[in-house]
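Sequence only, no structure available. Ideas?
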Amino acid sequence: MSELAEIAETHNAWPFQEARELRDKRLKGKLPGKGYVLFQTGYGPSGLPHIGTFGEVVRTTMVRRAFEVLTGMPTKLFAFSDDMDGFRKVPDNVPDREMLARYLDMPLTRVPDPFGTHDSFGAHNNARLREFLDKFGFDYEFKSSTDCYRSGIFDETLRRVLTEYDKIMGVMLPTLGEARRKTYSPFLPLSPKSGKVLQVPILERNEAAGTVVFEDEDGTKTEVPITGGHCKLQWKPDWGMRWRALDVDYEMSGKDLIDSVKASGAICRILGGMPPSGFNYELFLDENGEKISKSKGNGLAVDEWLTYAPDESLSLFMYQQPRRAKRLYFDVIPKTVDDYLTHVDAFAGQGPKDRLNNPAWHIHEGSPPAAGSILSFSMLLNLASVVNAEQPGVLWGFISNYAPDATPESEPMLAGLVAYAIRYYQDFVKPSKSYRAPDDTERAALEDLTEVLKGMPADADAEALQTEVYEVGKRHDFENLRDWFRALYETLLGQSQGPRFGSFIALYGKDNTVALIETVLAGKDPAA
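Reply:
I predicted one. Tokens follow.
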């Protein structure tokens, strides 16, 4: 056993907890007969990939890598697309919606692609999913429901569904309303005439022949095989069937699917399989604390986050407390970015045990960058705010004075953060900035600070500057020094919170800070 594996045995980082539970409870410490341990994530291709898709894949990947360190067993990750599902609703954000409306209830892989780039709408969205996953470098194998049903991979398990039909109905019927019970069947036959996925009662079952009989749309009594892509399953039986057919070892899902996991797990057992290990993660909330909904369009999309911050910061957000509901909105981005930088900077000086507890290890699969950034994201935001930056060159002028050896080429992470900070400032900070005039106590303190800064050496570092700022606050009648710093932020930066002020002075420049204070004392607009 490797040193890392020994440490992982008792490590409390949640991916290692999940890995140990998978190894001990489901696998009993043994490699499955298929020769690998299978992790799976699911995707409904009726729409484009979203932030929940990213969260599920990145979290599953974290558990997978932890499991590999712990056990050394080979693993695979299937990204499974339920692209044989019926097309139930035309999305609002696609072209040629009238054309699409003519294909309602058809399998997604038989609906024409409104974008004209692929053989079907399902194939188009599958391609977007793969493009999405590839963008982040995920290691996975793509699996299509249509291919699995048509190729015969599911045939044996589908026959078991037919054999155990009554037991499966016994699981599902109590979960349905009275009207739905009358028409429900685990099997959704595809009409030989229209090609639609039909939600109709099954009139007869022939286990020996492997067929079911139903009433087609035109009223004719029709018999089709349950195999070969002539039927698919309702999604909960489908989930349980897939777990059994593919022998899935690990799959997580949202808290809203707890009851579905129980039903699908029961069906998996009826079919002779063992449900996978996994856990139910909490859902994201919007800025008002309400559950994020694709139909509402509230919350934050992946592309929106990546407009203002690197993807590693989004991975950190997903890593942190997955079983706790969290607000997912623009205002969480700056702190998350700075937390990520802190973890990266700490990694190099940590021993093996602490490294495994560092989110940077899980985000970068054990190999994070050697260093983060010489400046925090919040500091760059405040600098952008003071100078009303619109172009990176403006910020680099100050950065070069603060750290003469730093260039965009030598500090690529910092260069990225500069661009992100300018975008974030322009879109979120600038519109909400609100300066106020200092009161008499604050004015006296600001005048004092101006004289102190003028008397300090040009090469005074951030610590010396911070000490003097503190001393000025102590000399004046502030009940709490927090009030002094809040006054600095509100009068000089136009915001209620801000950076460590000594560090800000060091970056912005002592003389520039004096000029800023004198502008405020003169009653002029510091943003002008």
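Residues 51-71 form the longest helix (21 residues).
Hope that gets you unstuck.
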